[in-house]
Design goal:
The chain is mainly alpha-helical and 195 residues long. The protein contains 9 helices and no strands.
């Protein structure tokens, strides 16, 4: 496959599928500053990335600003993409890093001491969850405090371990666990109040 930093000069690799070939050509054209290719890349991936951002950020204007920051970073780092792993996954990681930057700049972190974290029953049965639609669940998640919402989303939806969440949000692993536990407790209460 192409080596980072010189994809525009590389011959077309033997792609596994025609979709891989189309993606390679699209990325190559984006690196060459072809505005139509950049718009096509944006149009193809913006809905997915915006959906990820909206799980973390309730305000449409802020979410759009973050999306713009994500695409700015994607376009400036395209020559570094090595075609190792999924392109969408590469962009998703950029989005998560920018969302984390946003939280570090704007969220007030609750500091938890190294005391034991209360382990309360935060399980919600699947029948209860099944009666709540995605939009209602998303609204409940958006009601969580910023740091709890970030930790919850990173752990539950992105499957990040507490160690990585702690690094991204500049909190301790214990704080990450506490925020996740408290977010689950709050969501359980809200969901039980709805049903």
């Amino acid at each position: 496959m192409a080596k980072p930093g010189n994809i525009a000069a590389q011959p077309l690799p033997t792609p596994a599928t025609s979709e891989d070939k189309d993606l390679f050509l699209l990325i190559r054209d984006c690196i060459a500053n072809n505005r139509n290719a950049q718009k096509a890349l944006y149009d193809k991936f913006a809905p997915v990335l915006y959906g990820i951002i909206r799980r973390y950020v309730y305000n449409n204007n802020i979410a759009q600003e973050i999306l713009n920051d994500v695409f700015y970073r994607v376009f400036t780092r395209l020559p570094q993409y090595s075609f190792e792993g999924a392109f969408e996954g590469w962009m998703r990681r950029i989005a998560i890093n920018i969302i984390s930057d946003h939280f570090r700049r704007n969220a007030k972190h609750s500091v938890v001491t190294d005391k034991d974290i209360d382990t309360i029953d935060t399980n919600i049965d699947n029948d209860t969850i099944g009666r709540i639609n995605y939009k209602a669940l998303l609204e409940l998640i958006h009601e969580l405090p910023d740091t709890q919402r970030a930790v919850f989303n990173l752990h539950v939806f992105e499957d990040y371990p507490h160690k990585e969440i702690a690094q991204l949000l500049e909190i301790t692993e214990n704080n990450s666990r506490w925020h996740l536990n408290d977010a689950r407790r709050r969501l359980k209460e809200k969901i039980n109040n709805l049903i």
